[in-house]
Amino acid sequence: MIYRDANLNDLPFIVDVYNSTIASRLVTADTSNVTVEDKLEWFNEHNTTHRPLWIAEDDHGNHIGWISFQDFYGRPAYQGTAEISIYIHENNRKKGYGREMLSFSISQCPTLGIETLLGFIFEQNTESLQLFSTLGFEEWGNLKDIALLDNKKCSLKILGRKI
Asked: What's the rounded Cα separation, in Å, for the pair 142 and 50?
């Protein structure tokens, strides 16, 4: 697998993959599709040296998914902590790419200045919880019934790992 920094031309792919997860109510708290314009500010918050946004491709240049690192809580004392998000195109799910992408991301944390990596995962997303757990993440928090999706309250687990 090849990982590269995302560029503005990748944003429609990023948005399409993101939107493909909304209906499942397993991955994101967004309840309706977002647009490229909606994600432009978020896209521009990433940088290659500290909080990258990567595109994962196969050896033929086909997009598999994307990885995002974001600041945790936006205060200077937390600069060594980042939240990771991994999204995989629906044609590439359940093929082991999530594990490979998360493993790669963990391996890059020291060069990014990340000492603590966090994942925010809905309690009903058992596959993601299992993936993170197998790669050394532990439950550090459980925000009970914090989200309302289709009139159903959902809990958000915070998984953490020291690098």
From this structure: 27
